[in-house]
Amino acid sequence: MKAVKLFLIATAIAALFSACGGKAKNKVSLEEAKAGRDRELFQEAIKEIDKGNFDTGRILLSTMINTYPDSPLARAAKLANADSFYLQGGSKNLAQAEVEYRDWVEFFPDDALADDIYIKMSEIHLRQVLAPDRDISHARFAEQRLKEMMRRYPRSDRKEEVEELMIKVQEVLAMHELKVARFNYIHRRAAQGAQMRTEEILNKYPNFSRLDEALWIHAQSMIDQEDTETASRDLTRLVASYPHSEFRQKAETLLKEWGKPVPEPDPAKMAEGPPESKGLMSRTFTFFFGPKIDTSPKGVIIDRDLKPEEITARAQELVGLPAPAGLTTPSAGTTSNTDSRPRRAAGATQDVEVKPADKESSSKEKPASKDNKKDDKKGKDKKKPDNSSKVLRNP
Asked: What are the 10-residue block averages of pLDDT along the chain, 395 residues in total?
């Protein structure tokens, strides 16, 4: 009876520990590196990312990069890894995507895709730009990335696109400065504060849609500081360049009071017509969701409108390989770093271990006989396996 009780207690304890431990982890299997496997892994990763299995896709990309570091497709795999974070979205993933893109462009600054990388980094922040009334940090970061791209790659074929994005970003930044200037002048009666904010607009954002209001507030702040000469220049520019402005009549009145000449409006500006004003619904939407700035839903190398096979072929073309080339036969040193430590792709969610080559076989090379056979201790002839061509990978 005691034996039965002890048996039941032991069974219960074993079941309890089994429940706490959960399912046993899948064993990592050995796979022999072979020619063409780099392309297969890359294409399998693209398929998983296309399905929304981003972690699985990144593990496959990590396996490919670690196992075939000399493959031409390794460069495309690192870029696809960054794309996976961008496509997944969310503030954390977008931040990680920028880190991956930044690392990539630092390694390959002269690559043909480098300018695209900078635009993609700006789009990461453009997707998170808030209304001018709120935090504008992402708008500033986007402007910095676009300026950096134009400085490094002034001959880029995407220059016009960058200039259009720059205008939209600077519209948000200028509107933020204008709102602060309004508050300083109207509510705080701080003439110097309004002057500084409007001068920021006049000096940095010449394409701002409400530059006429910035001129008017700047003129008013200078009048309060008894600088009518500067104010008259602002008012003269306002009348000549912004004939449809709501501040034109007031500006003309002040110029006449001071005995200053009133300029004729620019005919070209007169022909343009008044700017369109946003409705209440549009302003409300902008306040809660930020300004509408179009960004690409595609990655630099991953386009979900294309099939994985087409993306793979495109990746081969981008790295300079004619399709269907790019199949790399791993060498003896393919599976290990020079410092004999396991490699890990940036951003991977799981370490992919690489089995190092045997020290004795890698340190010295044994001469081969004519019939390429070796005798073992038992006198049997068999081929010695090459451990350097095996990698640890996920099932």
From this structure: 56 56 43 76 95 96 92 93 96 96 94 94 93 89 96 94 94 94 93 95 94 96 94 95 94 94 88 65 53 85 92 86 50 37 39 45 45 46 44 36
Residue with tokens 């996920």: 394
* 201: its two tokens: 């607009």
Which amino acid would we find at residue 19?
A: A
Asked whether 68 and 37 are in contact (CB, 8 A), the reply is yes
Token digits of residue 374: 């070796």
Q: Do domains 36-127+295-326 and 169-293 have the same CATH topology?
A: yes
**C-alpha to C-alpha distance for 392 and 395, rounded to whole angstroms:** 9
CB 57 within 8 A of CB 49: yes
CA angle at residue 334 from 333 to 340, to 5 degrees? Answer: 60
Three-state DSSP state, 335: coil
Looking at residue 314, its amino acid is R
Quickly name the fold that domain 36-127+295-326 has. Answer: 1.25.40
- Please state, in angstroms and rounded to a whole number, the distance separating the CA atoms of residues 210 and 197: 14
Residues β-bridged to residue 324: none
Domain borders along the chain are 36-127+295-326, 169-293
Specify the CATH number for 169-293; select among 1.10.490, 1.10.357, 1.25.40, 2.40.128: 1.25.40
Q: pTM above the 0.85 mark?
A: no
Q: 34 to each of 41, 129, 171, how far by Cα in Å?
A: 11, 47, 54
